[in-house]
Design a protein that fits this description.
Blueprint: E1 2-10, H1 15-35, E2 43-48, E3 51-59, E4 66-74, H2 79-89, E5 97-99, E6 102-109, H3 114-127, E7 153-160, E8 163-164, E9 168-169, E10 172-175, E11 177-179, E12 188-190, H4 197-203, H5 210-227, E13 231-232, H6 236-243, E14 250-255, H7 265-276, E15 279-282, E16 288-296, H8 305-330, H9 334-339, E17 345-347, E18 351-352, H10 353-369, E19 380-381, E20 420-421, H11 426-439, H12 447-451, H13 458-466, H14 471-479, H15 494-513, H16 527-541, H17 547-557, H18 564-584, H19 589-596, H20 604-618, H21 621-639, H22 647-651, H23 656-660, H24 688-709, H25 713-721, H26 724-733, H27 741-759
Parallel strand pairs: 7-10
Antiparallel strand pairs: 1-3, 1-7, 2-3, 4-6, 5-6, 7-8, 9-10, 11-12, 13-15, 14-16, 15-16, 17-18, 19-20
Helix pairs in contact: 1-3, 5-6, 7-8, 10-11, 10-15, 11-14, 11-15, 13-14, 14-15, 15-16, 15-17, 15-18, 16-18, 17-18, 18-19, 19-20, 20-25, 21-26, 21-27, 24-25, 24-26, 24-27
């Protein structure tokens, strides 16, 4: 057994492609060797800006001999079939093996030298490599058949043990020589094998292990900030990117002009990160410091002073641009900026962004005026803007939110997390909500958001505060996109909640009204994310928001004809998103289905309260026994009753709502009364257990109904639990399918009452167990 080393050296590989390239190299290498019967259990890959490397441990010197079998025709098949099989395999009749009346062609393949296998496999891997972007180069690039690689390929090291595996790719012959660091050691190095590859390159100022480079950058950047009395703002994405840009990373701390701190801290951080790949720091008081950490790729003789100075000048130019955008944007009121939205098309069927803003403003006001937003519950938000005191860079990074998210995860919030009390007057609250909604999208046409789209909303909040808007309006503009992903903050301030909900609901309602709902895996308008944002906001703030009413109000405001099918489709869509969310939270899927099966419910808070109460109930002994009794009753109703009895309802598989309403039940048997609600006298004396169940139902049904009306679902479950013992006793001592038609009908009516009572809470037929 021996180790194999492969290094593919090229010009600079983009940092963003390196991790995937390592995975692809290991995958393709394993697949090619598997074809020759060589298992590859221990593979290590490395990537630097100039090389992609692989080390495979414990490969055999030779592959094992293998026997291949090909099934042929039966021995009784016509001669023509046998002749065709012999031509295909190249064997004679005598060389075939007869196994139970069927011919097999058995071919023994001798083992091969692993070096020969590798000499064929590596060129195939290189030519099939799936780079996201690749190029041709040199004179050969005139032909479309020339080699494509991410950047011009310059050298190949291929060593099995200490022996070169000979092959050639596009005129580049494999060997044992590579190059060290571009500046510290730009000379050839002869590699002895996989055993000394990493250390020989380290001696020549190349750290090939990307994880080691990342650790070095992270630790030394922290240390540089600490020595300056500062704290590094953590950014793992930036650590990985700098590790992909350097082979010998040296973090260095520099300073920029403190005058630039007049620009919002998020802008400074984004400018340093996106344009220059720099870290930023915070001071001891938590505010952004006028310091940055860059990562050099060389150990300079002057300790990096000239490198830092050069990077400071470049950053100063970038920050000057950012300050220009910020100062220029502040000169124009947001109201005037918002006028430009009339020229931006939101969607060809939905009008301009200005049209959307108008819809959102009306919906936000309606949410407040109807008391849906602004009642009891969380009523504070957090804010700090220019003019209110500079806010620190916050401790936690914002959540990842996808390709079109706002305020990306690598930015710290940057705004002081103080408390801002909501206006107590509902009329004022409605006015502020409408005002915030009309200004929320204005920053889309500003110079700063044009340069950094990630800052939409955030910059609008800064501009609103600086221009004297109410703090609640500024906070709502800043946060109205939230939540934009799992783990992101959910708004709780009434004005922000109203604008955030109105914005997302308008998007959902309009796209569904025009039949543009998501299909399969396609969701071009991010409606699933909007739905999850609506659900998170409703649940976090305990909002009693009937989706159907919002849909109807929104379509009425727009003067359009409401489509009932679109409204129901939206309710179903939100229900599906809630199912997904709750399953991920650990709620049993069958219990969710049991509640949703009742139908006619679009109050998500009430739905979820019912689900949680049901989950708590079915895990108790009473719950398990009631479920068993319910299923026994349902089965009897389905199998034993005639078509005119309650079993007809079971046989037709009616919905939970239909069963609850007594659909398909003989009117004389609903609750043991006639069609006028007068108790039907029985023609026989009921069994004691039968009478006890009748009495228990008479007591439990109204209590459960009253509890459901009061939304006390735990009490409703408790009322149903009282049926457990009477149901058990009934089935133990009473024959339901009695020969006497009167007894049979009355007892089936009792079973139907059990099912109907249970279906007031949930469709127990959906519950497993």
């Amino acid at each position: 057994m021996t180790d194999f080393l492969l290094e593919l050296r090229s010009e600079e590989i983009p940092a963003r492609m390196q991790a995937k390239a390592r995975e692809d190299l290991a995958r393709l290498f394993s697949a090619e060797l598997a074809k020759a019967g060589i298992a590859t259990s221990d593979i290590v890959t490395y990537a630097t800006p100039r090389r992609l490397a692989l080390i495979a441990r414990d490969l055999p010197i030779e592959t094992a001999a293998v026997s291949e079998e090909v099934k042929g025709p039966k021995t009784s098949a016509p001669p023509q079939a046998l002749e065709g099989f012999l031509r295909k395999t190249g064997l004679t009749r005598e060389q075939l093996v007869d196994r139970g009346g069927t011919f097999f062609a058995v071919t023994e393949k001798p083992g091969r030298a692993t070096a020969d296998v590798l000499a064929e496999a590596i060129p195939a891997i290189v030519r099939a490599f799936p780079w996201p972007k690749s190029m041709r180069w040199g004179d050969a690039s005139a032909s479309t058949e020339s080699l494509r690689w991410v950047r011009p390929l310059q050298g190949i090291v291929a060593l099995l043990g200490e022996t070169i595996v000979p092959f050639e790719i596009a005129g580049i012959a494999s060997g044992a020589a590579t190059l060290g660091h571009r500046f510290h050691h730009p000379y050839q190095i002869t590699i002895g094998g996989a055993h000394d590859y990493v250390e020989k390159l380290r001696a020549c100022h190349v750290i090939v292990d990307q994880d080691e480079r990342a650790t070095l950058i992270r630790d030394h950047a922290r240390e540089a900030a600490m020595q300056a009395g500062l704290e590094l703002i953590e950014d793992e994405g930036l650590v990985a990117e700098n590790a992909g840009l350097t082979e010998w990373p040296i973090p260095l701390l520099g300073r920029f002009d403190p005058a630039f701190l007049d620009v919002p801290p998020e802008v400074i951080q984004l400018t340093a990160r996106v344009n220059q790949k720099y870290f930023v720091c915070r001071s001891a008081d938590g505010t952004l410091a006028n310091a940055f950490v860059c990562t050099a790729n060389i150990a300079a003789h002057d300790g990096g002073a000239k490198i830092v100075e050069g990077n400071r000048k470049v950053l100063a130019a970038r920050l000057s641009d950012a300050k220009f955008f910020y100062d220029t944007d502040l000169k124009m009121p947001l109201e005037e900026q918002a006028d430009k939205l009339e020229k931006i098309v939101f969607h060809e069927k939905l009008g301009t962004v200005a049209d959307k803003v108008d819809r959102v403003a009306k919906l936000a006001r309606w949410l407040v005026e109807e008391g849906i937003v602004g009642g009891a519950g969380p009523s504070s938000t957090t804010s700090s803007f220019p003019g209110e005191g500079r806010g620190p860079i916050g401790d936690g990074a914002l959540a990842e939110a996808g390709a079109s998210s706002q305020q990306p995860s690598h930015l710290d919030p940057g705004l002081r997390r103080g408390t801002e009390e909501a206006p107590e007057d509902r009329a004022e609250l409605a006015t502020l909500a409408e005002r915030a909604a009309r200004l929320a999208k204005a920053d889309l046409v500003t110079g700063m958001v044009g340069e950094f789209p990630e800052l939409q909303g955030l910059m609008g909040g800064y501009y609103a505060a600086a221009q004297g808007e109410h703090p609640a309006v500024a906070a709502a503009i800043r946060d109205h996109y939230k939540p934009v992903g799992q783990g992101d903050d959910v708004p709780t301030a009434p004005v922000t909640v109203a604008v955030s909900l109105a914005d997302k609901l308008d998007t959902l309602i309009e796209f569904f009204a025009f039949d543009m709902s998501p299909t399969g895996s396609k969701d071009p308008f991010a409606l699933r994310r909007a739905a999850l944002g609506v659900i998170a906001t409703i649940l976090a703030n305990d909002l009693r928001l009937p989706i159907s009413s919002v849909f109807k109000m929104s379509r009425t405001v727009m003067g359009s004809i409401e489509r009932t099918t679109a409204r129901q489709s939206l309710v179903d869509f939100l229900a599906d998103r809630l199912k997904v969310q709750q399953r991920e939270a650990g709620v049993r899927h069958d219990l969710i289905d049991a509640v949703f099966a009742l139908g006619g419910e679009d109050d998500l808070v009430r739905l979820l309260a019912r689900v949680h109460a049901l989950q708590a109930f079915v895990t108790t002994e009473d719950g398990k026994n009631l479920l068993a009794g319910y299923k026994r009753a349902a089965n009897i109703l389905k199998k034993e009753a005639p078509a005119t009895s309650p079993a007809k309802a079971g046989a037709q598989e009616l919905s939970g709502a239909e069963v609850r309403d007594g659909a398909g039940l003989d009117p004389r048997l609903r609750g043991g009364t006639d069609g006028e609600g007068v108790q039907n006298p029985l023609s026989y004396t009921p069994d004691p257990a039968e009478a006890a169940l009748q009495s228990a139902l008479d007591s439990a049904e109204p209590r459960a109904t009253a509890a459901i009306a009061a939304e006390d679902f735990a009490a409703a479950m408790a009322a149903l639990a009282s049926l457990r013992a009477p149901i058990d006793a009934f089935f133990d001592s009473v024959i339901v399918n009695d020969p006497d038609p009167a007894k049979r009908s009355a007892r089936l009516a009792l079973l139907e009452r059990i099912r109907a009572a249970v279906h007031n809470v949930a469709d127990f037929s959906k519950i497993e167990g």
